[in-house]
Amino acid sequence: xxxxxxxxxxxxxxxxxxxxxxxxxxxxxxxxxxxxxxxxxxxxxxxxxxxxxxxxxxxxxxxxxxxxxxxxxxxxxxxxxxxxxxxxxxxxxxxxxxxxxxxxxxxxxxxxxxxxxxxxxxxxxxxxxxxxxxxxxxxxxxxxxxxxxxxxxxxxxxxxxxxxxxxxxxxxxxxxxxxxxxxxxxxxxxxxxxxxxxxxxxxxxxxxxxxxxxxxxxxxxxxxxxxxxxxxxxxxxxxxxxxxxxxxxxxxxxxxxxxxxxxxxxxxxxxxxxxxxxxxxxxxxxxxxxxxxxxxxxxxxxxxxxxxxxxxxxxxxxxxxxxxxxxxxxxxxxxxxxxxxxx
Amino acid sequence: xxxxxxxxxxxxxxxxxxxxxxxxxxxxxxxxxxxxxxxxxxxxxxxxxxxxxxxxxxxxxxxxxxxxxxxxxxxxxxxxxxxxxxxxxxxxxxxxxxxxxxxxxxxxxxxxxxxxxxxxxxxxxxxxxxxxxxxxxxxxxxxxxxxxxxxxxxxxxxxxxxxxxxxxxxxxxxxxxxxxxxxxxxxxxxxxxxxxxxxxxxxxxxxxxxxxxxxxxxxxxxxxxxxxxxxxxxxxxxxxxxxxxxxxxxxxxxxxxxxxxxxxxxxxxxxxxxxxxxxxxxxxxxxxxxxxxxxxxxxxxxxxxxxxxxxxxxxxxxxxxxxxxxxxxxxxxxxxxxxxxxx
Amino acid sequence: xxxxxxxxxxxxxxxxxxxxxxxxxxxxxxxxxxxxxxxxxxxxxxxxxxxxxxxxxxxxxxxxxxxxxxxxxxxxxxxxxxxxxxxxxxxxxxxxxxxxxxxxxxxxxxxxxxxxxxxxxxxxxxxxxxxxxxxxxxxxxxxxxxxxxxxxxxxxxxxxxxxxxxxxxxxxxxxxxxxxxxxxxxxxxxxxxxxxxxxxxxxxxxxxxxxxxxxxxxxxxxxxxxxxxxxxxxxxxxxxxxxxxxxxxxxxxxxxxxxxxxxxxxxxxxxxxxxxxxxxxxxxxxxxxxxxxxxxxxxxxxxxxxxxxxxxxxxxxxxxxxxxxx
Amino acid sequence: xxxxxxxxxxxxxxxxxxxxxxxxxxxxxxxxxxxxxxxxxxxxxxxxxxxxxxxxxxxxxxxxxxxxxxxxxxxxxxxxxxxxxxxxxxxxxxxxxxxxxxxxxxxxxxxxxxxxxxxxxxxxxxxxxxxxxxxxxxxxxxxxxxxxxxxxxxxxxxxxxxxxxxxxxxxxxxxxxxxxxxxxxxxxxxxxxxxxxxxxxxxxxxxxxxxxxxxxxxxxxxxxxxxxxxxxxxxxxxxxxxxxxxxxxxxxxxxxxxxxxxxxxxxxxxxxxxxxxxxxxxxxxxxxxxxxxxxxxxxxxxxxxxxxxxxxxxxxxxxxxxxxxx
Lengths: 343, 343, 326, 326
Ligand SMILES: Cc1ncc(C[n+]2csc(CCOP(=O)(O)OP(=O)(O)O)c2C)c(N)n1
Ligand SMILES: Cc1ncc(C[n+]2csc(CCOP(=O)(O)OP(=O)(O)O)c2C)c(N)n1
Ligand SMILES: [Mg+2]
Ligand SMILES: [Mg+2]
Prior knowledge:
The complex is a heterotetramer, with 2 copies of chain A (343 residues) and 2 copies of chain C (326 residues). With 343 residues, chain A is an alpha/beta fold.
């Protein structure tokens, strides 16, 4: 694994391996749902039912599931353009997400956002942003609002490891730490920004160490072990709720597929072998094995789960296909707020 | 010194206190020249001979003199808007700088730049920039060019400690370290950005520690002791010349005057007492005493130096007053390069 | 009617709106303990406390984004840009998020935020500190752009901007802060998108905004002595543009001069000229003429700077031209 | 004449200029090992090595500033913006340094740099990835703005841009990269600031640039069958604008339609309309009409997106209007 060993996921679980066992089945189901959803999205893209840029989450499922499972329903979640998995983990329906990818009126953004711009205000899912690093100050802003209102909500902000080199990362983390905002900053570290390995874009490869520049804790987390992810997230959540300020999580994972649908899974920047090697420690397999050991899963149960999620995704695709296009007048709506009486 | 003790200058000199003794007289003279120059500039501003924003360097003289004395003539220097002292230390004449403050045709920027935009390409003095942090990537760019051309030149980039919270600091330092550029980044840490103390703008107050985010050395330096400044700069210069990459220097100093001429020396953000207290360890006094101990300076010699620089500054003011305004057509020149044959 | 400075009128608007709505807060560099670089926020820290009057580090992109994020979840931030020159560092958050979030989210998420601060040139601040960017922001759907010229307009428009549910770019002027004017004692709002006839006239129209309003009125006075009766229309809001007000005036006077502080190419005046030639082609008795800054970075030298700037003399000359008086 | 794609024409221009001048280097995200996000730099790393074809971190403000700094001391960087949408993060360095350094330094320091990459919309990339900012850059003195529409123009203009001693904003189009066209075999340059008559005509003029050139030519073909002989002027360079070419054509045809990809308010077309009404007022037989993107953030849905965009049908309709044929 020449190019990216320096950021390869490594075991970090500390607590009792049985922790959260009553949630394992839900986690497994959600990871499977995301996996199957992304596979079908990829198919739909190749036959032209989905357009634009489409960035799949395959291989990173444990990050979304392990982190979001630690949140309260009224917390805020914000991500970049590789956010299908987080949207599903946050409880958005496969229908509303798939329909958005199809650009349909029934999509979570009414067909106006697309794959990179999924939104669900009710669930505190705040997008879906296309400018690298742009969501980091926004996430800090949600935390600012939570503190302002004393609601004990927090914000969870995802970004790729390549985004840790952009100015908004530095500005937002400094301010969030200075003001002790209830924020969690998650570096979703899949080893590459498009075709660039971490060590070709960052002067240090242990990005968690950058937390020290802001006096906040920085932790490296095994992103292929959902239990480890949840464990680390719980600590960050506790700090945020206690008013102790933000945490930076460097969650090590891997993207099995290309950067986007228009990019091959491997190429000049990484080898087929490397991808294969990382696939060995698949986040779904890791949990599956743990559950089998614990006697919480057998082939039948797994097949049942598989059947469930496959049906759910098939239904979502059918729903998306059959849903109507937005009305033509939708072009002109939502530019400005509906006119109201100023008072 | 309530508000800013956390970044107060503290002794850091390590090597033989006699080091560089043959340069001491030049340093003392240059610090005196800067001090007197700034005093006269302040007067000229109050009677309307200088306009716009005018940021004085009084109290920070040892930083410019100690750092620039370590450079080669063909190295590059770039700073922010508080750059009169660095311009003089770089060998620009008091006449050309004062005339620029007066907006005269004989000024170093032809009267078109002003106090915040002093330039002297011949001496590698690259400005004088008004957007906080804007000069940091530019300084890295000069270092990039030096490396590209294999000239063994380096770049010295000054910025205030408040600029260490802006995105360009993060982006430029990461790239400079990643590419091992021959650059020296100097945080001219005078404790305040306008009315904001370091601890109100940065989540950590030891800004040198931020170097770790880029895998580069970060050093805290006593900015009131020109010998300590030079000592630390020599190390950074050696690293840069040896191709070992950039260094971050957090040089602790203090601004005796207001942020700019339109700002009082003390006010809500710092007390008169604090300013008085810092004045006790004046960089000129510190060197003066050292020289007296070493028997290199007596009252007569000091008076002679004083007389020299006072005359030099007086001459500069007269020169500036008597110099012509730029021709009216200067409004239209220098917008684009003179038209040349495209081959 | 009390006489207030433009600065104090803005201060009063902020105070009243912060008293009225606990979700309104002010954030920016030096706005709190320092009372604002230009003292617009004087006294607000004492009255509302550090929770609602927030000093930020120098990190325009970061605090603009924090403001936008807080507005996305319902707070109503007023983000002060110490000057609009520095907002170039924050422009990604303004253009790519604030202006688009409602549209991208299919109408779910709004962004009731005001970005405010001084724009354009003051005196001898040099090239980087003397820029007028109103045409840039007005180019962007999803934003509103407001530029008051008088204390009364400043107060009434800022109050409306804060209550508006859209992102509003509110551009003041360092050279306007000390301008005095009558301001109503009772509370009032001035709707966004409505121009104001600052002077009625029959022979020619001057369309202006912000810092060009006063010179336009001076030019009108000069021209009065020359027998020209000039109407002066203050746009007040650049986007949405009050097209009806401009067209009404031009259909009456048949002659138009547009005066703006900034550069000419694709400036606000270009849009107004395009509008008028398109909608009032047959009403025009002369081509529309524009007066704007010299097409160069602003020089430091005071004589060169004066030559670069729009003034009453240049505006009057343009009016004579459209009236074929030269 | 060889037939090349727009992409390969740009690639050839980069290769030739890098061969010609060792001070020319290419810097940007994914330009080297990945051969460019849109493959414009394919093969350059192999030919010129990592010293001259430089992959950067995602840090537009940082690497733009590094490019500007290196240009201030005499290198001739070509800085690729993966798309112009991301350049908003770097715009402070472009506007406050590259465009002003020569002026602020009294002519001492130049900035021979090219910023290049695709601008405007592609297909269904959504609101943040589908913006045309040419009017913004053209607003700024000190910059040149170039937007080729054909492979031949792309090559000749990029070579001139690289040799130009000023900062040049070079805006390509993702939708143009695969466009094929004849490109001369021998070396050639196309001067900046010179528009090109892409089609001669007598009845009306369409002024266009970049992605609106092809639809304008299609519209002209359609209108030919309706008996209208339309002239199509491709601006090629937005700043400096070839005013003479536009006026010459309008004085011949007396009717003008301006088509541009971006938003309308204070767009490039507003400036052209202002120019024409001012300089050719009496030559116009009808008001100038503009065709531009719907004044909304770009929607993702493909039907809405199509409706938002300029196309031949909309341009043809506008021409009929200025010819009073509707
Ligand atoms: C400011 C900005 N620059 C460049 C891009 C183009 N781009 C989109 S994704 C990407 C790579 C990001 O990598 P990373 O942050 O690691 O996230 P990942 O795609 O690996 O999830 C780039 C360069 C962009 N969208 N925004
Ligand atoms: C991007 C930007 N934001 C704000 C300003 C206004 N401003 C000018 S100097 C300054 C304080 C800078 O403090 P510091 O970096 O410590 O430098 P010092 O003035 O102390 O030398 C501020 C906020 C600016 N010029 N640029
Ligand atoms: Mg990544
Ligand atoms: Mg300081």
